Every structure is written in C-alpha cells, then in structure tokens.
Amino acid sequence: MAQRVETLDSTLRDGAQGEGINFSVQDKLHIVSALDELGVTYIEAGNPGSNPKDIEFFQEAKKLSLQNAKLCAFGATRRKDIACSEDMNVMSLLSSGTSDVVIFGKSWDFHVTHILGTTLEENLAMIRDTCEFLSKNGCNVLYDAEHFFTGFAANSEYALKTLEAAATGGATVLTLCDTMGGSLPFECGDAVKEVVSRFGKHAAIGIHTHDDSGLAVANALSAVQAGARHVQGTLLGFGERTGNANLATLVANLQLKMNYSCLSEEKLRMLTPIAKRVAEIANIALNPQLPYVGAYAFAHKAGMHIDAVIKNPDAYEHVSPESVGSSRVFLMSEVAGRSMIIEKIKKFEPSVTKDDEIVQEIIKKVKKLEAEGYQFEGADGSFELLTRKTIGKYQPFFTLHYYQTSGINPRPESGVNACAQIKVEVDGQIAVAAGEGDGPVNALDIALRNALERFYPAVKKIRLTDYKVRVLDGQSATASRVRVLIESTDGAASWTTVGVSADIMEASYLALVDSFEYKLIKDIERHFLGTV
Hints:
Elements: E1 3-4, E2 6-9, H1 25-38, E3 42-44, H2 52-61, E4 70-76, H3 88-95, E5 100-106, H4 109-116, H5 120-136, E6 140-146, H6 148-154, H7 156-168, E7 173-178, H8 185-199, E8 204-209, H9 216-225, E9 230-233, H10 247-257, E10 260-261, H11 265-268, H12 271-282, E11 299-300, H13 303-311, E12 329-330, H14 338-346, H15 357-371, H16 380-391, E13 399-407, E14 418-426, E15 429-437, H17 440-452, E16 463-471, E17 482-489, E18 494-501, H18 504-529
Parallel strand pairs: 1-10, 2-3, 2-9, 3-4, 4-5, 5-6, 6-7, 7-8, 8-9, 11-12
Antiparallel strand pairs: 13-14, 14-15, 16-17, 17-18
Helix pairs in contact: 1-2, 1-12, 5-7, 6-7, 8-9, 9-10, 13-14, 15-16, 16-18, 17-18
C-alpha cells in the first residue's frame, strides 16, 4: 500500500507574495473551494492579524463547509521578551477560527542574533512558548523552521535545537524550509535524514522549498525520499522571487512516479482543471510549459513523434495525460504529418482516412498560410475552423458589412481611449453597434459583442485573456505584416485564434471573429450531443 504524504498549499499566503498576484477576499474564498475540491490536506490562508483583507477573509471563511482540506492561519512566534497572551499576532491566530495553525520561527543562528536581535536561548523559548500556548488552546500546530537548511549548514546543533523546542511545545509537524531556495537535492536529503532519525517518532517531518535555484520540486522529492511525509508548495508554483515548489508537479511526481499517495486517483484526474480554475481566479495566463497541467505538457509537433504517439502513446509520453485530467494535443505546423491531420479531422469527421484527398488539401493550405505568416501550432481554434471550412463542415454565423475604429484624445474617462462601430448581418437582419474601450482592439471587441449578443447570447461568456502581436517583416517598418494571436475563454475552456495582415486592426479582427465562431460552433455541437 502506498505511503501517505500530506500536502499543504500556500497559494493564498506565499503565493500572494508573487509579482502581479493580488487576491480579493472573494478570490481567496474561491481558491479555497477549488483546493478543497482537489483534496489537499491543508490550505494555508494567510496571517489573520496582518491586514484588513485577511481579517475579513477569515471571518468569511468561517461560513465555508470544507469537505477535504483543513484551513490554516499563519503567523510568527511570539515577539522577544513578551508573553504569548500579550502578543496581538499570536492572539489573532486564536481568533481566526481555524483549528490548525502554521507558526514560523528562526533556525539560523545568524538570523536570531542579527535580524531578530535577541539571544539564541530567547529564540528557543519563543518557539517553545508559542507552540505550547497554541496547543494548549486547542490548536494543531504545524511548525515551519525558516532558513533551516542554511542554519543546519552553519550550526547544525542549534538548528536541531529549534526543532526540539517546537516538538516540546507540541507541534505535530516540523517543516524544514529552504527559504532562500539555494539548497541542492543531496543537501536536503542528508539534512532530512538526520531530522527524521531524531524527531520522526514525535512529529511528521515536512519540506518547504523555493525555486531560486530551479530545484524546488527536486529538493522536495529528495526530502520525501529521505523520510519527509508532509510537502508544501503553491499549486501553480508562483510566489516570492522565483516562486515556490509547484505543488501540481510535486504531487504528480510523488504519486505517479514514486508510489506515494497524496490524492485519490479521482482527485488526481482533477489536477489540470483545478489548476486552470486557480489561474483564472488569479487572473494570470497559465504557463503552457508547466509540467502535467500546462497546455503543452502533452503536445506533439514533429510528424515522426505524432505518428509514433498515435501508434502507441508510450513512445513519447512519460505518463497518461488522462491521469492528471489533461489531454493529448497535436500541434499543427509545416513539420506536422498526415497522421496528425487525420487525428484532428476525426474529432468532428470520424470517417476520414489517410488516403482521403482532403487531408492533402488541408496540408497544402496550412503550408501556404504559414508561408504568409500564419502560425497554427498555438492557434488551435483557427486551425479547426480552417479544417471545417475545407471539409464543408462550416457555416458563417454572420456577414460583415464594415467596421471602423478611431482614437479619442484626450481620454474622456478612465479606461477609454478608442471607439469602434460595426455593421453585421445575421440571417438577413442588420445590426449596427458601437463600443468604447481601452484601445481600438478592445473597442472593436465590445462593438462586435454588442452587435451579436441578441442573436447569440453565448458571446457574453467569451473573455479575451491574452493578446499578442508579432511583426513578421521588420525590414518593411510600418508596412510590415503582423500576426495577432488572441487567447479566449468562456470560463470552462480556453482556445487560441490567429489573424495575419499588413493592417494590425484587420489581423486583430480576423483573430477575433475566429474566436467568436469557434465558441459558437462548440456550443452547437455540445447541444446536439446532449452534453449541455
């Protein structure tokens, strides 16, 4: 039977310290629900005494009914030369309403004397007193030994004494933190082995790593191999500086490669959908190259690779995409082969065979368009529309009469510096609409939505999540052709479309129309298949 490894997700605490991450109270509540659904053991939710937002969050969190995870408040040991009962931050942990708390303390003697400005003995008392105070008040205490590996290298005897102080105070988990992210896997493994031999019978040993050396996941795996049975990270790896251990990667490796149990198989198959949901809540684009959960994690482009994977996925896939809730992707490009084209077409035309002339026709069209500047490997939506048009499984949803855009200076209000007007026709009915936005593309997007919403209410769900422009011919200066890539989502799925033109607005419009039509086609198919 696989050994159990506890998981603690710190997206709401350590992750919130990442550049560009700013959670509202509602965001934090939504992420708690997502992580609970995934089935992590603990959710570290922030410091209830640090700011008004976290104070409000913990009040709202009391109304949640979690099914799998335990919510943890986070805080420091008591301040030097003060009783726990007189320390406002320690008392705020009790008022948070969580039965589990995470306490961090200093394990590097340099930090004790030069940063805290206290004695080594007083630091031990601060750790022991805080853990004991919270334990006696009914809390399960998880202790984070800050800078443990640095401290262990500098003064191993003292670093171990800090763990002893926490264990004596009643901590049930002793987590060793690579706070600066500078340790190497063999260093983590050696230190964890010694800690497990000394304290493993009294508390679970945990690992908390940062990615400053690009080794956060590797260090955590080394720690588990050495006996740690509690791992910490953030689901998508973001955090201060270069981030924390990516918990999605860590859990998948532990479970699929090392035979440990972190989540049930059913929950593990939710890993990719939950990762996408958390990215959406955090308002960030999910890095497509993330292991296991990224859009390219199981993507194949070279023709020989694609042909081999179709014959047997084990040829180029280290695990099954389905095991983590992902799916295999074949990227369309000039180096892709006939086998990939066939697999793409079979999704909506199962009867196609490798000898059909239509396959060669599609390949020719793709190569011609890529020579003009199109790029389909990152534009799945536009490629599917191209294929549908070629095989006769496409019908336009509207006809464009005209669009026009113009800039507005000075800005009449915040967020508005352009306007657009558009005229379209749907089944003989004319619609004329306008839009104001932050730039001409945003204004055109709003105008097109306004024109189509009464015919196709589903367009209300479409949201543009990324917009990229690439100049294809730098030598032509302002007359250069440009490629526009637009990534869109409806909250459940994401897709990317492409447009190319010497006119940036026309390229944007082409990508925008593909995005809307892709969504509408998919909705129609789901309706007829009875999946909505």
